[in-house]
Known about the structure:
This protein is an alpha/beta fold.
Amino acid sequence: MKVIVAKNAGFCFGVRRAVEAVYEQLGRGSRVYTYGPIIHNPQVVEALASKGVVIVDDLDHIEGGTIVIRSHGVPPQVYSLMKDKGLHVVDATCPYVKRVHNLVSRYYSRGYQIIIVGERDHPEVIGINGWCDNSAYIVNDPEQVDSLPHITKGCVVAQTTTSYQRWEAIIERLRDKVEQLEVFNTICNTTAVRQSEAESIAKMVDVMLVIGGKNSSNTQKLYSICKAHCPKTFAVETAKDIDVSVIGPGDTVGITAGASTPDWIIKEVIDMVSQLLNGQQMIQDGVTKGDNFEVNGQSADLKEGEKRAALEQSQPEMSEDISSMEAFENAITDLRPGQVVRGTILKITPEEVIISLPYKSDGILPVSELTLIDPHTGEVKWHEGDSIDVQVVKIDDGEGNVLLARKSLEKRLAWEELEDGFKNGKEFKGICTAVVKGGVLADVNGVRVFVPASHLSTRYVEDLNSLVGKPLRLRILEFDRRNNRVVASQRVILQEEEEARKKALWDSIREGQVITGVVKKVTDFGAFVDIGGVDGLIHVSDLSWGHVGHPSEVVQENQAITVKVLSVDKERGRIALGYKQTLPQPWDNVAERYHVGDVVTGRVVRLTHFGAFVELEPGVDGLVHVSEIAEGHVNKPADVLQVGQMVNVKILDIKPEQRRISLSIKEALREQQEKEAAQTEKEYQADEGGLSVSLEELFPEKFNLRD
Length: 707
């Protein structure tokens, strides 16, 4: 019999961290709750319950104590509720899951529709959905994508235990549903490695044992993957669940475990298989040698007395991943000063970053060696759980840790990225750091880049100092790594975008459209308006329904206005716009505002030999015939009136359909004179009445003799 135990079996980093957090709180003697089962393994949950840990799904009945948030994470409102209850919160959310929360929150705030690939009722998915106000579309099958509506902007993330095959199939269909799709593969790398390893083992064995809780999502996925390649695949929670009858004398047995399976359960299963192996050997052969063992991919011919010891030796303590000593030794010999190695960030402190390495010891990276904050966005670049490339400085820093560095590596990576961007025309973000002769210097990922003044903008920049500290969008024009010389341009990017906007505008603009623009220049004959990268002209005659002396009387530079497209000449690159066409036509309801017999005030706007035109309001003029200007004979209107003069006129006739109004100055004057005469007469009569006195008032004593 041959036994193959997966190297990547048992607790993942996030689960181990959550369980250790519960034990740490128990050690402090406080009342400990977990928000839901800390992991999907009943044996671990029962063990914790025996120590006093209480599982809660409802916070209403908790009054004080410590609550541990499991690795699956929770929605933001749960954090708020815990805080309001005054609980001491220990957040054991897996760093990989926390990264998903941050992505969802960020893109949801930017107006993206969130899409989650995963199981709708899984705690991790429920937690992720809470970071976008529970508005996400959740799909777990490519066919489910077909039922989604058309989406303009979408951001898709994955439950960390999703299989790569399912993820890729769903993403392929989503690209047909979403116009602008931001894809973030948030599948945990440990999950992917574990699934790949389990699949490889399943292809080689006769019997496959998958250890894990029945409610564990990642264990179920492992079972499905193994079952597809090994028909005799069995899911077991503990060693007692193994059906020994399914394992034949010459079978090769594979063993893997889900991320929620503790090491001691895995060890029990291996012990059970070991005992079964020994028993079968005795029954068949009556001897104690010749069987082949393989643990973590390492095989050896062992004597009977050595088999169990080999199995037990291959299992580290609960705090270590299942791995063979030989694998550890290989890792030690492979790690050397100067080597670049990939690790996982375990913890970030103010002084150092602790990094998990494929080695017997963790690595220590001084914070000064890592760019934690993106200088362009101000966002944190690195989080716990992120994978990171680092360089080995010392194998042992004196305390058993590996001393690491990254600054030189970051600089090398930055130069490599710039070179790749130079070859492929990539855009970079930079920060203007200083003004120098002929231009400015910019920092691009730690590399100094020169930007000529003529390449800063599509327009002349008068004060280069105003750009210091400001972000720049740059494309590399010259790249010389040997001489540390990089020349870049922002103008080429802006020009391309401007040309693209112009093309889009010329392709879309149509006569009759009403659009918004900004007045760029006012001249004697009209105003030029920017309508999206292209200027159109409003002729002075199209600025107002009334008479305009100069366009500045109607519009000002930098004023935002609504205009109507009157004509488009693509060949000559000319667009005629109208401003008055967006305003009500004053003649449409002129009869409602003016009536025959009304006396109104207007402004003389034009004089002819036959009369004067008087503007009653912008766009509405009336004619005062020369015979209606004054009582006496008027030879020329100009002898009596001036352009701009305000006059009172009486409406003699209105013909709206012909846009004609007949006016009279002399009738208005005559009516005014009549009103004034009547008023004078009234005042005179009042005065006369006030002077009359009765005889009784003059001689009161004569009228009171009888008294």
